[in-house]
Prior knowledge:
Blueprint: H1 26-43, E1 46-48, E2 59-63, H2 70-78, E3 85-88, H3 96-108, E4 111-114, H4 120-134, E5 138-141, H5 159-167, E6 171-177, H6 179-182, E7 197-200, H7 215-233, H8 249-256
Parallel strand pairs: 1-7, 2-5, 2-6, 3-4
Antiparallel strand pairs: 6-7
Helix pairs in contact: 1-2, 1-3, 4-5, 5-7
Amino acid sequence: MMTSADSVTPEPDETAPEEDPSRPSWFYTVGRLALAPLARAIYRPHVEGKANIPRDGSVIFASNHLSFIDSIAIPVAVAPRPVHFLAKSSYFEGTGFKGWLSKSLFTAVGAIPVRRGAGQAALDALDQQRQILETGAAVALYPEGTRSLDGRLYKGRTGVAFLALQTGAPVVPVGLTGTDRVMPVGAKFPTTKERVTIRFGAPLDLSHHGPASSGKARRTATDEIMAAIHALSGQELANAYNESPAQSPIEKIRRALPHERR
Length: 262
């Protein structure tokens, strides 16, 4: 579902946020006030480490990614603080009642529409998130990129660390468990028979790794983030990047060559 740039975080786009994310729209405010209590009542999420959530100032919530509902679980757990993330633009472009419902839901949980893409589009997505953080707002990202289909924790991409080193925003690691049972991949609706646990770790100051311009700093900072997420989620480590199968010989060669996965 969400895909923290499905290469960086939820999936990239070319359109910058039209509104100051530090001042959520009335629809987001009303939707969050209605959605959070309802979700808590139905799913009774178990939240640990809520004291680690900064009350104000820029912050990046970096989480593992198991299910479509992860991007609902995190805003519900972080409430009353608003949190923003990028979501595929297709969730906002549907027609009819279903399209309206999808757009309303994602707007209500603080999603910002972005289009799929790589290269410049991925960099544009990073820039969007930088702009959000510079307003003093909070963003939620998935360092793995897309959802884990087998439940393992995959290697982190460096986009989250780049943002943290570039903006100075602390990173709060998040470990989600149970969301894949509440709404497995392919399910149309979540079940109410399972409970979700959301664990927040202590904020990470990654500045000691070096500047954002350093590839080594981005990589070692990413590894620190993923180690913290692993400690919270307890998942088996995949020791590989979570990538869809290469669609062409050129793509296979590109992936085989050393390069930074943002």
